[in-house]
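Reading a protein record of the kind used here takes only a little practice. To see the layout at work, look at the sequence and tokens printed below.
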Amino acid sequence: MKTPFLVLILALFLGLGAQAQKFAYIDSDYVLQHMPEYAEAQARLNELSAQWQEEIEAKYESIARLEAAYRAEKVLLTEEMKKRREAEIADKRREAAELQKKKFGVEGELFQKREEFIQPVQDKMFDAIKEVARNGSYMVVFDIKNNSNMLYSNPKYNVSDKVIKEMGYTPGETIEAKGDKDGASGKEKASGAAASGTKTGSAGGTQQTRTPSKPGGK
């Protein structure tokens, strides 16, 4: 899941011999929107993110109060007292920055939790893609969502709906995670790793909505 991808190449040697190679594509973002497992994973990530963000903001608010008090009392303090107060504020700022990095930094806890929660979703979608590729004798399956080099795609080669059906879901019946305001970061990582063949849960509520299905193949 750490390495973004442009294309999923499924080398399925099914005895096609000299037959022409067949190609297809999916929109992994569209597929993920149909998976309750993904919505649940996103809901859990959103909950953790909000919890940690609140904790970090509380630390910075405490620092702001210390700074305001220090400015108000500075004229009354000795040089030694000023140094102690400034050192205290600097320590608090360092603690807040370290906590922020620990939770939201590269390889931080949110990143690790995303891998933990999203991996089962990726595995499930990847297996469905492989099955659709086998059934359709496709040698290559592209992901149009992440392949910026695809300038044109014929909808007849879009097998997104086949992947959705292979997992037992209904095309057009999308799931939205509660508390997911933009849903971009986690979704992009999941779709990237899943359709690239990388193998990278569940609490939190989900809200199921029926929306018109964009073309996803039949």
The helical segments are 28-32, 36-73, 79-104, 109-136, 160-166, 184-196. The CA atoms of residues 39 and 177 lie 4 Å apart.
